[in-house]
Amino acid sequence: MTDNPHISVQNLNLYYGANHALKNISINIPDKKVTSFIGPSGCGKTTLLKTFNRLHDSLTDVRVEGKVLVDGENIYDKGIEVTHIRKKMGLLSQRPFPLPMSIFDNIAYGPRIHGTRNKKQLQVIVEQQLRDVALWDEVKDRLYSPAVRLSIGQQQRLCLARGLAVSPEIILGDEPTSALDPKSTQKIEELFLQLKEKYTIILVTHILRQARRMSDFIVFVFNGEIIEFGPTEELLLNPKEELTKDYVKGFLS
Amino acid sequence: MRKLEENIFKILMIIASALVVGSFFLIVFTIVKKGLPAMNLDMITKTPERGFYIGKEGGILNVIIGSLYLALGSSLLALLVSLPIVIYINLYLKTGSWLGSVTRLSYDVLFGIPSIVYGAFGFTIMIYFGLKASLLGGIIAVTLLVIPIMIRTMDEVMRTVPKELLDASYTLGATRLETVKILLRQSAVGILTAILLSFGRAIGDAASVMFTAGFSDNITTSLTDPAPTLPLAIFFQLSSPIEEVQARAYASALVLTIIVLLISISARILTKRFSKNKI
Ligand SMILES: Nc1ncnc2c1ncn2[C@@H]1O[C@H](COP(=O)(O)OP(=O)(O)OP(=O)(O)O)[C@@H](O)[C@H]1O
Ligand SMILES: [Mg+2]
Questions:
Q1: Which of A38, A143, B230, B232 would be B67's cystine partner, CB 3.0–4.6 Å?
Q2: What was the ipTM of the complex prediction?
Q3: Same structural domain for residues B57 and B16?
């Protein structure tokens, strides 16, 4: 099932000071599929997700050992340019964090950084991305008003569009719907399902039903370790490990 | 019983607020009442006449200009020094690094040093470089005085910028230098507040300019001229034995109060405009 890994994690260990938060993680994440991380709170899902684009770099007292290969390239190699690997991934966090600027500038931020200056070109990109996340009709008349005035659900879609605007290959979602109402949640879910044609998607979720609806594969994380990894239905309905059984028990009944 | 507690605290809070508001109005009332009779157009359009330093006639235009130069110059200079420092500790240093803690500790210490010490320190520097009491000397001393205020105010605001917001910028492939823009936009209000607070402090401080900026009856035209300042003018006028001159101290105080008030009001207005994009 993983002959074509997009991200390959090899013997990854992460320490927050003395706290060994990720323990010897090895996993191959398949290309153009949705892979969900599930597990109890504090087990290390967010930490693992952040190692994929080196967001731990700005913390002291964090030590990372092991390899993370993205497209066969170890992103923890000394010579690697960190902006280059980050550009490959769009991250959607639990709560949306729009940049302190207008809706238009939020989407144009990434392309501008990477060298697109032409106003016409930017307009095309902004419209395209906003359409892709089904936000265009809601905001087309106020593109230049502050992004913070949008509702939380709209902000989350804006953040998705902002990430997509730098044409990433991978989308990381850390409980991207946990702050949203059912309607907005459904919108984001639908978007993800459309996006998986073109992107490799990694999703952290606490909602097992969502994991089932969305993903091709599920990874069960517990206490910093990967306990089980398998195709969605198999892992949820027929788990092999006792710990996984315990965790998904409620879901089965 | 709990009701009683609540009422007691309510009354205490009302008394405290009343004291603050009351003393504010009392101060303004005193200044206006005593200063207004001596106030006239000459006061703000002319330099002193008939009598060195504290003229009986004419105005305090030289003092107003000196004070504005001094406060503007030192606020700008302090901003140039402080901004890179706070950007460095908030964006370039990793969260929780010891260098950040040491820097924060040192500006907290500097913050508590009385302004006369900065005046004395500035004076020493001036002697070392062979400078006379001048606008430049005053700017140096006052800059030293307001840097801790500026750094502290900006740092306090920048520390509240969510890490996830900066991460959002990094995630899009931005470098640290590019992310500075996000940090600045998000803390624009704090930076503005810092500048205005520093300006207010700079224009109102007497001790730091006493030996460093000097005083004169003429309008300051160069960095090496002495720069007369409002707090010192008030001090000289009040210490005069002549009654008319004493009355003019309150007019000077009124001018100073109005300048500070204008700054506070513009701060309010600008804050509103600057915070519209803030998350
Ligand atoms: N910046 C940090 N410094 C120190 N320890 C941290 C830090 N971030 C997370 N941890 C610790 O690492 C462990 C894993 O945390 P993480 O946030 O990855 O859990 P999670 O699985 O995402 O939980 P949740 O489902 O609640 O989001 C926890 O024990 C947490 O306390
Ligand atoms: Mg988490």
A1: B230
A2: 0.89
A3: no
